[in-house]
Every structure is written in structure tokens, then in C-alpha cells.
Amino acid sequence: MEEKLDILLERSKSLYFHYPVAAILECYDGTLFYGVNVETSSPAAGVCAERNALFSAISQGYTRDDFKSIHLKAKSNKEVYPCFICRQALVDYCKQDLEIIIYYEGKLKQVLLHEISPFAFCDADLS
Fold first, then answer.
1. How many helices (H) and strands (E) does the chain have?
2. How far is the C-alpha of 95 from the C-alpha of 21, rounded, in Å?
3. CA quadruple 78, 79, 83, 86: dihedral positive or negative?
4. Between the CA of residue 32 and those of 24, 43, 90, 105, what are the distances in Å?
5. 108 burial type by CB count under 10 A (0-12 exposed, 13-18 middle, 19+ buried)
6. H helices within 11-125, ranges in order?
7. Number of Cβ atoms within 10 Å of the Cβ of 9
8. What's the pTM?
9. pLDDT averaged over the chain?
10. Are 32 and 25 in contact (CB under 8 A)?
């Protein structure tokens, strides 16, 4: 998976903040959805790699029950976690046991969505 992430990193459009990120959302059926961050001169108009991959899967009809894991890598080789906007999107559309696999410096770290979003706003908060 790391080789695919390395290829994706080259497709990132990070002209403004120079922080390329790639994501691959893996489904239980083996389908992979790819995403890279796409920056614009107005930061709010861009999209992070995680949401890019997630929204692509959703647009193809996949749902929270289909998502197994999301793999992440930044070109900087630092541990990269989803930003808080991406965490909220993942909380809204994925199960809390979604595995997040982070690749950095030839290593990988695995965490679960609920571990990085312990007090997330969720459906229950709307009622």
C-alpha cells in the first residue's frame, strides 16, 4: 500500500502550503479509493486527501459498513493524522472502529478512529 501512496503523493496539488498528503480508503470488498490534498489560494476551497478519498467512495454508493481502513502518508515522512475537519467527516460516514494506518519514515502506526476523536460531535448530538 505504501508504494501506491508514494505514487499518489506526486499527484497532490500543494502549491500554497507545500504539504503533500495521500490517502487510500480500503473497503472490505477490496475496493480502494484514492485521494490527495488539493490546495487552492483560499484554504477553505481546497480538500484534504482523506475527504477526497472518502467522498469518492460515497459518490460510488459505498457506505460506512463498507469501509475497513484508511491509509495515510505525507511527503514529509512525518506521522500525519487527519485534520479535525476530516476527522468529523470520518466520524459522520465511517464506523468508529475504522482503522487509520499512517506511514512514515519506513514505519507504520495503526490507530482507530474513536481513539483520535474521543469527543466527536455525532448523530446522537443532533437529537
1. 4, 5
2. 23
3. positive
4. 6, 27, 16, 23
5. middle
6. 49-59, 84-93, 113-116
7. 19
8. 0.95
9. 95
10. yes
Q: Averaged over 25-32, what is the pLDDT?
A: 98
Helix or strand holding residue 8 (H, E): helix 2-9
Cell of 18: 507545500
Which amino acid is it at 103? Y
Residue located via cell numbers 505514487: 7
Q: Map residue 104 onto helix, strand or coil.
A: strand
Q: What DSSP state is assigned to residue 115?
A: H
21 within 8 A of 48, measured Cβ to Cβ: yes
Q: Does an H or E element contain 7, and which?
A: helix 2-9
- What's the Cα-to-Cα distance from 8 to each of 3, 19, 71, 119, 124, rounded to whole Å? 9, 13, 12, 31, 36
Buried b (16+ CB within 10 A) or exposed e, 72-82: bbbbeeebbbb
DSSP class of residue 92?
Answer: H
What would the pLDDT profile of 101-111 be if each residue is shown by its tens digit? 999 999 999 99
DSSP secondary structure, 61-90, as one string: T--GGGEEEEEEEETT-S-----HHHHHHH
Kindly state the average pLDDT of the residues 21-34: 98
